[in-house]
Amino acid sequence: MLKILKGAVLITALAGVSAPVLAAREFTPQPGLWMVPAENNGLPGRGFSIDVQGNTVFMQVFNYETSGAATFHTALGQLDDNASMTVPLLRFKNGPYFGGPAREGVEDGSAGHVTVRFTDGLHGSVQFPGEEETPISRFLVNEGQPFWWTQVSDTPPSGKEGGQIMRWTTTPKDGARYAWSAELNADEQRDGVYSLELATPIYGPVNRQFFDCREVTGTPVLDCSVTSTTGVPTLDIQRIRFRSFGPDVVGEIQPAGDPTQRLTLNGWTEATYSCNRVHCNSGALRSARIYADSDILYGVCITGYCSGYDNITVLPTSGAWMIDEERTGKPGRGVFLDVQDNTIIMQTSDYLDNGAATFHLGAAALNYGPGWTDTTASTVMLRFADGRYFGGPAQSGKEVARAGAAALTFPAQIGERKTLTDFATGSVALPGEAPKALRRLQFAPPRDTGLEHMLGEYLVTWETTGTPYYQEGWIQLSRVEGDRVKNQDGTVQCLQRDRSKPYSISCAWNEKPDAPFNPVIGLIGHTDIGINPFNHHHTHHRTLLHTRDQEGNWLGLGKVNVPGLSIPED
């Protein structure tokens, strides 16, 4: 459920929001639908969508008037050191309605102030006007069990030869950094058992640990115990518990060297994949649901065959989106998408023909296309009434109208060069309207000059001048000087070679600080960093992980408290 201030209005509002120097968070709230658990009774009610980029929060509340009519309110602000903000809840009126002419809305006062505080990437609290503070949590659509990639099917082609591709990381109290490529597969010989392989380094794995995993009773959590090790792992692990929340993975690690320790695991899913034959020697027999531009699409081999995938479901990023042609600088309507597994929930903040603000909600499955074609979804947009209003008693709503179907399309390839999608591009046909270009709303797009948007922490693969030829390393780009972005001591410095690619830079690692870029003498290594601003686990070139944003905030969910995730003391 969403209302988006149209482009320039949001940017103007952000320009007026103070941005003090803050302590970095150890989590980022997951974008999408959030709820008040005490109000989640399975009936229509109020809810809110949240999108956090850096320290900026855009919150869309979908609730009701005292008359029972559905409405929406918008909140925009900056998180403080306590991951909290208190800001006005704005009202609007007279914007465009489904199938109606282009028209611009106006601000219609405030309902009072809202206070939002986050405790981790999935939990927090809210205090609406006239109400007490109450816990909030992410609204979750549990991934179907058993996993789709373990089931024999022709729609999409899938079977026993499938898995989940992930990248994981943890940081113990001593500050050491560890990262793995992780792959989860079903065990064809043992029902209820999954095989997990961890490999380090991520690039060119040489050390591996293997685990048997089983579900923790009554939860989607997997409990994994080590079965074998090859090579010398960077961190010897004896037990892991983990769970996926859309693209994010969270868990606990028990190291073998100190079984009393419990390390926080954060990770990101690149893709899930499967095929429906014993020998998958045709791309037409192979399917993937992708969160990122994964290597799985370009040669991961199943039973020896590396022929790619013909059935691709693009999983676009959750958060606030906007209709391109409605960027007029005035308040208008908006679209908020929440993608979990292959379910997409669509909420619109829009208006009735009498100018009153309202909202609509729909949900559907994302449909793959044959070959590298579009991913689509179609859902009937519902309108509700008689739910809870600010300061009012707890009460459920009811469906009162159906506005017709909305159609969504997400291309597998974009641009003249037909490169893989950026997971932030699509189109929408709202009820009674033609398709219109749709894209993810970016709160702070790159400026024409400067590289501040590339500050942050990365795990990269260096191409070195010594041995080994490839070497993984963590870097923290913390300052910009002229046309260079550098680490703190200046031994790493990066520049942008192509201004048409604002999220791609080339970096040199030198023996001495602030040395000339790419010197003949003193160069230790070089690498490229390429990222996607909306898919922090989605990286390019030799960027293996992007783990902190330009404000220093951790880009994962952090340490979360969910049932079954803690490894027992015994």
List its salient traits:
globular, mainly beta, 39 strands, single chain, 570 residues, 8-stranded antiparallel beta sheet, 8-stranded antiparallel barrel, 1 helix
Task: Describe this protein's structure.
- The chain is mainly β.
- About 0% of the residues lie in helices and about 50% in strands.
- The protein is built from one helix and 39 strands.
- The protein has one helix at about 5-15, and strands at about 30-35, 45-55, 55-65, 70-80, 85-95, 105-120, 125, 135-140, 155, 155-160, 165-170, 180-185, 195-200, 205-215, 220-230, 235-245, 250-255, 265-275, 285-290, 310-315, 320-325, 335-340, 345-350, 355-365, 370, 375-385, 400-410, 415, 420, 425-430, 435-440, 455-465, 470-480, 485, 490-495, 505-510, 525-530, 535-540, 545-550.
- The strands form six sheets. It has an eight-stranded antiparallel β-sheet, with no helix packed on it.
- The chain is globular and about 70 Å long.
- The two termini are about 45 Å apart.
- Mean pLDDT is about 90; it is low at about 1-20 and about 300-305.
Question: In brief, what are we looking at here?
Answer:
2% of the residues lie in helices and 48% in strands.
Distance between the termini: 44 Å
Whole-number average pLDDT?
Answer: 89
- Give helix % range: under 10%
Strand arrangement in the largest pleated sheet: 4-3-2-1-8-7-6-5
Principal-axis shape equals globular
Radius of gyration, Cα only, in angstroms?
24 Å
Number of helices: 1
Unreliable sequence segments? 1-20, 299-305
State the major sheet.
Answer: 8 strands, antiparallel
- Summing up helix and strand content along with how strands pair, one would put the structural category as mainly beta
Classify the beta-strand content into a percent band. Answer: over 45%
Number of strands: 39
